[in-house]
Each structure stands twice: as structure tokens, then as C-alpha cells.
Amino acid sequence: MSILAGDIGGTKTHLAFFEQNTKGFVIVAEKKYPSHEHGSLEEIVVLFLQEHAVIAEKACFGIAGAVKHGVCHATNLPWEIEVESLAKACQVGKEKVAIINDLESNAWGIKALDEKDFKVLNQGVPEKKGNQALISAGTGLGEAGIIFMQGKLYPFASEGGHADFAPRNAQEDSLLKYLRKKWNHVSYERVLSGPGIANVHAFLVEDQKMDEEAQVLSEMKEQDAAFVISKWALEKKSDVCVKALEIFSSIYASAAGNLALKMMATGGLFIGGGIAPKILPFLNRSQFLDAFKDKGRFEAMLKDVPIKVILKEETALLGAMVFARDMLD
């Protein structure tokens, strides 16, 4: 069996061609394309298949955006992506092609990971037949559920990252008021994302009147703000940057705890996205677990939930392959 899998984002489109051998499915061809340099996903698919002279029997693409009735309007791209047109590009029947939300794709990819691909934050006591959940902060904030049903785990997408941000203390009340001056609706994504880290930092400087190093402010104008803030925080060279990541990490933990409750994720909570692996020293500490389980009467349940950070960047790509393998007849 051969599968074309894709991880589609606003910056890049990562395609890979998998073939089955005695050890399972292995990548025999892959390439990353700048998304904005192409008019459609179909254009990239046709180019990839021609460049590598391969023929796919099945195909699945994880895309940043809500998928409804086989159609997705990509969040950060001017593309309308349809199963039917992708099937034509792949030259297979439309029943052999799927498009799924990128977080759902990440969740499917968990099945393809090894223990070395995780950093354990809480060993917990997992229930073998328990649901799981995935929260993922990166360019935005994504959430997915993984339901245990008939002996198997089935991921499903959500848009939970756009739910209302709920402050837990006076400082977070002030943060919400600060963010409301910019947006009428303040979602968790306004805090738990790359731009969210910059928002928290700006709140500390502009609203809380903390003094920032001139060099930090200068670097933030020239480079990605979240990268600069994280770098200075990890090096402990800026009190403001350290405070920004402490607030970010605490709210991240609380949101993860909320998701674990909503999904009854007694089988485990996974943290994906590009941010978590880069700020592990701020996540791998007791304060994170305290914020995660601080849910009143349900603290006892949450302390037993395993928490793992996903370290492998290609998880969404692997998830698209797993979905095509397991769910497309």
C-alpha cells in the first residue's frame, strides 16, 4: 500500500509519500513547499507526484482550519480545499482521500510515536480504557479529543482554542482587561500562542509598568517576539521575559487541565505544538502541575492524569498517514 500524507500550514506544506514494507510504513519521498508561493494545495500535490514519479493509493492531509463536509477554508491561506479536487489531483477515487483538521492529524500521529518522542511531565496513573486529549500552542492554539471506543482510540477535532479566556486571579483579571482594549472577544489563543507570549510581555511592560532591557525591545523589533522573549527568559537575563513565560506556562497548564476535565482524559493529556519543546524548563516544574490540577473537587482525578510533551516535529504528518491507513477503505 502507498499513502500520500500532508501537513498543511500557513508557512509551509510538507508532503511525504509512504510505502508499506515488512516493518510498516516508511517514507520514500518527501518535500516541503512554501505555501504562499502556490495557488492551491492541488497544484502542490500534482507537482510533488510528478517530481517523485510516484502513485498514491490513498491520501490524507492535515490542515490548519475547520473541516466541514469535505471542505476546508485554510486559516492562514487563501485556499479552499476540497476532497473532490484533491482526489483528481491524486488520481484516485474521492473515497480514498481525506482532509482533517491539523490538531486531529497530530492526535492520530501519537499512535506512531515512540517513548523517546515524549517528555513526561507527570507519570500519573493512566486508565487503559480512558479518553485522551491534546492541546497545542504554536502559531495559534489547537485542541483535540481522543475518545476510547470499542477497544480503540479515535481522535476528533475541536476549535476549543477560541473559547473565552477565563482569568483565575487578580493579575489575570488585569491581563484580560488589557487584552479587551485590543479585541472584543479574548480567547485563550490570544494568550496561549506565539503571538500570545508577545501579548503577555506587552501587558507586563505597558500595563504593569515593568522595566524591560533595551536590548530585548530592540531584538523584538527585528526578530520573532516570542522567540526573543523565550530566549531571554531561558537565559534568565530579563525579569520581564521570565515573568511572561511564568504567566504563559501557568495559564497553559490551567487550560490543559480544563481540557482534561472536558474530555475526561483519564488516559492522558498530550501537549503538542512548537512552543512546548522549546520552553521545557518552564513546564517541567511543580508549578505547572499545580496549575493543571487546581480544579477544586476534581484535583484528585487530575493528579492521576499522565501529561506528556510531544517532541517530534513530524507528528501531524505521521498522523495523516495513520488516518489514511486506518480509516480509508
UniProtKB/TrEMBL annotation:
One GO cellular component term of this record is:
cytoplasm
User: Which keywords belong to this entry?
Assistant: ATP-binding, Cytoplasm, Glycolysis, Kinase, Nucleotide-binding, Transferase
Where are the annotated coiled coils located?
A: none
Species source reads Aerophobetes bacterium
Record protein name field: Glucokinase
EC number(s) from the headed UniProt entry: 2.7.1.2
Reactions performed catalytically: D-glucose + ATP = D-glucose 6-phosphate + ADP + H(+)
The UniProt gene name for this protein comes to: glk
Gene Ontology biological-process annotations: glycolytic process
Q: Record's family? A: Belongs to the bacterial glucokinase family.
